[in-house]
């Protein structure tokens, strides 16, 4: 008997010493013929929220990657590392005395907002068409250019020198271990990431997460969230089958404020759903004509809508 086709999102709590690919492989084993992909790598050192998409929901991965992430990160002063975390070659830079708490707190505003950050030598950033970590593993010195990243929140929540813990909310592409490296440099004693826990990816928070051990072949489907969980923050517009045919052709149609959950902002995406609350597409609101232009159409649920006509 063929396995049922599964579409949706899993909010998982990744354990330590496991790669994001390992997690995907576990879910792929449960889903079998269905496509599976994760939305944002966590290193084996890290724990916490990892969002995995199944079936056509894998097309939502780019949207999930745009969400801000929240971390609890523990660093140790006095150390340096070629990876900027404890998995690399560790160098002792200082045995103290350690900076005062106030010295670190005064540095934090420097690293909030839009900042320029140099990625770690061991990172997936491309340089000359190759991954930086591949070059670094060969012993080559990699000169990586600083890149703009967004840090929305940075707070010292525990200070037990030489250890300290930061609460961090940041945008996609931000390297938490690089934040620690740069803070350690500014404190003139170095700092290395010792532990990292991701507590949220946008609306996917720790309280929604399930453990790998909690997933069983007969019950794992109970943990699969609707694709709509990815677009909870967007206005929602219910569409008819005739409007579904316009979607199929890529043609715009009226926004119809009586059928939309709230008036969208200019250029904001709108979640287009069926009367059964199936997500079929995302459209851009065009205020000048009060219309919606299809931007991302998902053929599988759209085909189901048109079949019901």
Which characteristics define this entry?
single chain, 309 residues, alpha+beta, Pseudouridine synthase, Archaeosine Trna-guanine Transglycosylase, Chain: A, domain 4, 3 domains, ten-stranded mixed sheet, five-stranded mixed sheet, 19 strands
Overview of this structure, please?
With 309 residues, this protein is α+β, with helices and mostly antiparallel strands. It folds into 3 domains: 8-67 and 203-228, Pseudouridine synthase (2-Layer Sandwich), CATH 3.30.2350; 69-201, 2-Layer Sandwich (Pseudouridine synthase); 234-308, PUA domain (Archaeosine Trna-guanine Transglycosylase, Chain: A, domain 4). 19% of the residues lie in helices and 34% in strands. A hairpin with a 2-residue loop joins strand 10 and strand 11 (163-170). The longest helix has 12 residues, at 20-31.
Brief overview, please?
The chain is an alpha+beta fold and 309 residues long.
From the helix content, strand content and strand pairing, which structural class follows? alpha+beta
* CATH architecture label name of the largest domain: 2-Layer Sandwich
Radius of gyration: 23 Å
Strand portion, in percent? 25-35%
What do the pLDDT scores average to?
Answer: 89
Number of domains: 3
